[in-house]
């Protein structure tokens, strides 16, 4: 276990390092000089000494590898730099916005699982039943519904036509209802479909048939034979769908004016505040890589036969 | 395994819808009752009616004409992206799967770097640094999509490579390129096409989603996602502004999804 955890950890570090390189390279391919862009706003861009002073302050006058190393050592010390726009530390800005985003993601996960576990496993056990056909038909529709449109329709229904829930801001539990509902509806279709196919696949295993032949009742058979063997794909499903949930959270934060990371990121993309974009994407990437790492460890704990090379599905 | 949803009627309806969409897109201005960019302040925020089927927006532009004009911006780029991505990944995947060994390892580690990064993050980082705009969205989507296909195609090639007819062709003196083009490619084509068609709806949703988030197409472009963003701000005054562009995204994605599902059940893809 420990050996697996350590060797897998090097892969985590390597992907993170590659990602920092990628971000750094992109940053320097970016059109427009941030110093001049910013100083233009103050009407001071023509003054060469001001430009030079700012470049020196931000280390932009050094060579590229030096800048990269400087930046990387800063990252390792937990410094994500300061926002060009506000001059505040990016770490602090992100930390203050973490809670709403995480709450949104966690509650959407919970609701999605609540909807999809019974439906996915139920339809998988009873293939071709009426419920199965209806959920399949709905899932074709559900996989093509734009999340942002669904959210707007929910807003229209429950915020405008029948003003039941708030449609802007955050603060109370009621603010979370609509975004969580929208995310869960869209994600559930995917989850139901995957869970259904796992159930169909695993219920045909020889040991299930053998247990059935021994006369085991469903109430014993399903939890201790079927669901246990489905644990590995289930963990993969939950772990690998984090990016999808995060993406959905970004969209929801922007629609419902939620003060989370997603909204912050997009606002700063429009203002070209590079340290913030860098900081946010690094934190998100780190979270995703770490989650993948934990997912892999979970596999190993559940099924020690699993090798390092195990391919994960692409979400 | 036949489920009742992918019947021939729904597939026909979906195909008709796609055909209509393509015709309307190609002959765009012909079908549009109004100029999609022309503002008319005497007729702003009109609800859907006889003159303006989908109503008008806050600048008095006819929404129906704008939705039709949007086909070029929301649907056609998807075909181009997928064409480019699939050519790149078919070539890479075939070479990797067919020749195997070191070349395979090299190509696979290159794709691994891209698959490790989630699509959305890649898109946001690319747009964040290279700037807002449709070209960068296309670039980002292509970059994040190709690696996924390479893996799948490589797997398919791996399976087909061991088939007797491929061995027979090789024994009778067929070399690399000709074996790949004449014997392997035709055999993986159905699966590759199914995969691509199943992804059309996801790419449509992603493209419009980026515009909806304000980092793709910019106003006054009649891109559906960008129109939906406008509509969101008028949700209390003029709900039709958000409804119709979204409906079009939904219907288009749905049509492609239905065709994809049909193909998927025909070719037994996972």
Automatic annotation (TrEMBL), chain A:
Principal subcellular localization: membrane
InterPro entries, A to Z: BPD_transp_1_N, MetI-like, MetI-like_sf
Any one Gene Ontology BP term: transmembrane transport
Sequence ranges assigned to domain ABC transmembrane type-1 in this UniProt record: 98-295
CDD domains in the cross-refs: TM_PBP2
Domain of life from the UniProt record: Bacteria
Membrane topology: Multi-pass membrane protein
GO cellular component: plasma membrane
Subcellular location: Cell membrane
Transmembrane segments: 98-122, 134-164, 176-195, 231-256, 276-302
Alphabetical UniProt keywords: Cell membrane, Membrane, Transmembrane, Transmembrane helix, Transport
Matches recorded under SUPFAM superfamilies: MetI-like (SSF161098)
Family label: Belongs to the binding-protein-dependent transport system permease family.
Name recorded for this polypeptide: ABC transporter permease
Origin species: Paenibacillus roseus
């Amino acid at each position: 276990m420990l050996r697996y955890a350590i060797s897998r950890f090097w892969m985590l570090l390597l992907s993170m390092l590659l990602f920092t390189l990628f971000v750094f390279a992109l940053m320097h391919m970016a059109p427009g000089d941030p110093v001049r862009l910013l100083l233009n706003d103050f009407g001071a861009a023509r003054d060469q000494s001001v430009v030079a002073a700012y470049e020196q302050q931000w280390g932009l006058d050094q060579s590229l590898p030096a800048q990269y190393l400087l930046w990387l050592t800063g990252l390792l010390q937990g410094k994500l730099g300061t926002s060009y726009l506000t001059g505040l530390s990016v770490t602090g800005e992100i930390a203050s916005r973490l809670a709403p985003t995480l709450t949104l993601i966690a509650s959407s996960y919970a609701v999605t699982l609540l909807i999809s576990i019974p439906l996915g496993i139920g339809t998988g056990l009873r293939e071709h039943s009426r419920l199965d056909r209806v959920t399949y038909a709905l899932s074709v529709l559900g996989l093509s519904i734009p999340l942002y449109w669904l959210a707007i329709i929910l807003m229209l229904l429950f915020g405008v036509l029948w003003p039941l829930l708030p449609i802007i801001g955050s603060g109370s539990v009621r603010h979370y209802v609509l975004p969580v509902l929208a995310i869960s509806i869209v994600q559930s279709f995917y989850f139901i479909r995957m869970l259904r196919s796992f159930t169909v696949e695993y219920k045909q295993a020889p040991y299930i048939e053998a247990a059935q032949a021994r006369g085991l009742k469903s109430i014993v058979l399903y939890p201790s034979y079927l669901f246990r063997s489905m644990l590995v794909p289930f963990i993969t499903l939950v772990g690998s769908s984090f990016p999808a949930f995060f993406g959905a959270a970004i969209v929801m934060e922007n629609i419902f004016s939620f003060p989370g990371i997603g909204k912050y990121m997009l606002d700063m993309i429009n203002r070209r505040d590079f340290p913030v974009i860098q900081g946010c994407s690094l934190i998100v990437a780190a979270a995703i890589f770490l989650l993948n790492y934990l997912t892999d460890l979970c596999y190993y704990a559940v099924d020690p036969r699993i090798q390092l090379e195990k391919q994960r599905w692409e979400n | 395994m036949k489920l009742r949803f992918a019947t021939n009627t729904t597939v026909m309806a979906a195909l008709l819808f796609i055909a209509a969409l393509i015709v309307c897109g190609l002959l765009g201005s012909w079908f549009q009752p109004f100029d999609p960019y022309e503002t008319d302040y005497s007729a702003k925020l009109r609800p859907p009616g006889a003159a303006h089927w989908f109503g008008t927006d806050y600048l008095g532009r006819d929404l129906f004409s704008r939705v039709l004009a949007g086909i070029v911006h929301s649907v056609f780029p998807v075909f181009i992206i997928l064409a480019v991505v699939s050519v790149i990944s078919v070539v890479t995947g075939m070479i990797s799967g067919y020749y195997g060994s070191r070349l395979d390892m090299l190509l696979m580690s290159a794709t691994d770097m891209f698959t490790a990064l989630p699509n959305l993050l890649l898109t946001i980082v690319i747009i964040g640094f290279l700037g807002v705009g449709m070209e960068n969205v296309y670039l980002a989507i292509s970059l994040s999509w190709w690696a996924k296909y390479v893996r799948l195609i490589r797997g398919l090639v791996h399976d087909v490579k061991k088939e007797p007819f491929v061995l027979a062709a090789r024994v009778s003196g067929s070399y690399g390129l000709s074996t790949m083009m004449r014997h392997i490619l035709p055999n993986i084509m159905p699966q590759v096409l199914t995969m691509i068609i199943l992804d059309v709806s996801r790419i449509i949703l992603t493209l419009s989603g980026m515009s909806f988030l304000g980092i793709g197409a910019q106003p006054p472009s009649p891109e559906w996602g960008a129109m939906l963003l406008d509509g969101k701000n008028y949700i209390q005054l003029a709900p039709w502004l958000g409804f119709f562009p979204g409906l079009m995204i939904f219907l288009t994605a749905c049509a492609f999804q239905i065709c994809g599902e049909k193909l998927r059940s025909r070719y037994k893809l996972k």
